[in-house]
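Handout, section 4.2: multi-component inputs.
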Amino acid sequence: MTATATTDRRTQNDARWAAVRAGLTRGWLETKYSILSPSDLIWILAFPVIYAVVLLFMRGSTVPGTDFALGAMVLPSLVGMSIAFGGLTGPASTIAVDREDGTLLRAKATPNGMLGYLVGKILMFALTTLVGLIVLVIPAVTVAGELRLDGRTFLLLALIFLVGMVATVPISVALGSLFKSASQTGLLFLGSMLLIVPSGIFYPITALPEWLQWVGQAFPYYWLGLGARSAMLPESMVTAEIGESWRTFEMFAVLGLWAVVGMVLAPIVLRRMARRESGSTVAAARERYMAKGY
Amino acid sequence: MTAQDRPPPSGDMALDVRDLRMRYGTKDVLKGVSFTAQRGEVVALLGPNGAGKTTTIEILEGFRMRSAGEVSVLGQDPAHGDEAWRARLGVVLQSWRDHGRWRVRDLLGYLARFYVPYSTAEVSRPWDVDELIKVVGLAEQTKAKVQTLSGGQRRRLDVAIGIVGRPELVFLDEPTAGFDPHARREFHDLVHRLADFENTTVLLTTHDLDEAEKLADRILVLDGGVVVANGSAEKLARELTTQAEVRWTSEGRRNIHAVTEGDPTAFVRRLLAGDPDVSELEVKRASLEDTYMALVHRAETYRPESDGAVSDGAVSDGAGPDHSEPDLAGEGPTDRAEQSEGVQS
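Output:
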């Protein structure tokens, strides 16, 4: 009996590891499919190209009251925004889609399949967001001269990227599980866009009314933008920030809080949602899809 | 293995369902379903839409909680099935839109990896992916994107995914819906192969009687949430198709008489002895399909009164629309078909 129990436990551990490794393969394959698919590639490239154009137009403009190039000020904010946007909107919409087309149910029917699925998703969003960041090099070239780029920059950026992913992906997974159908995730895009307004990314947050500043500071957009600015801007630019400080500690604290909330909520919501999934709900979604087209 | 709170079923019992009930709100979908399946047996769950087939199979797959009853699937309660139990099952869902961007070989290879740790001395898991792809006839499509497969190819991929872990028990929910006759035939060969060579237990749902006859060792007819018939196709045919129709012409009139019980020979003998004018005599046994339709029809008609009361063996009561014994002369106005058909020749 005890010998069997030990074997069972060892099998269970082996099986979890196998699922994690399979999940990494999944993340890699899905990233590959995504990058090789023209529609996704356009989506990945569209924003950096738009940013590049925006930055080109900003040439010659300076941050009011200084002689610092406006474009160089905006670029780091864009880095922060890309992390937040990739982490917040991507997982939610794929979860909703995967639920409708039966991908989640397939994961449920596979031993430890949910674990593999989640590992795969996290890796995929990390990789595709990273691709989006690398593509930001295109617009960055136009303002690179003004930026502070050294070892500290890249270390801090890597750290912000990791914390940003952990702070946004679980929350997004939880949100995505709440939506009833894939078409509803459009609301999430809309919400994200609205939150960018008070985020201090395109417009200095210090110029906003105070209540709006507080709204902005409640969400990861502002903090990821701030973090990226602290990594890439020269020290003198700190004067444009709230309290004339990069507030590095507060940044990690707020993002950490989001991460904790997300990690607590996501498994609960996901499990609850997955329990309701069955062949007939997937079939019903398919019928609705065939009948109405969404 | 953990202790069960009732005697574990014998080693060759794959499925043991006792008095399974399911209620959604106030609606009873399953009203006491009981059946078993031996290892290596192919059981078809047959019934019209809404009979409770999918609900039953989803409960057995562990995807749906039941309201009452005892269920044992490979010795475990599916409501508390762990991952090791899950590894011994194969599930072929009705859905077919998932993983559209994946390539066939990638998807099968990915899913196969989850089963590697569950390989045992008796069952080596998973299937060799390339071999499996050949078995299901997708060798040409290994690099194809899943979304570019035809309906039949997609379904065969679903089946391959369902059996990639070399399951001891496979659930197939409406496996051939949307198949052309050729694909259907190939699929049937595959199921036979699973049962015969792999000793896999198969539980499939279908509303196609012909398919159930071809595939299953045993057919369960489910209707209105109860099992209204349970047996091999031959047994069902023998037990259920007792009904026969005798048609003849006498004095220029076409007569039809339904013999609902026993051998129609006795009726014919008496008929011929009593009426010298009989010509164009025809005796026709109802097909299994006619019987199935009648069975389902009867269960539907009786449903309000029969809540939970009907169970296995209900078929043998042989109640038909006309229980009267041969009414000689044959022109009696009580003759069933006379009223509805009454053809004058």
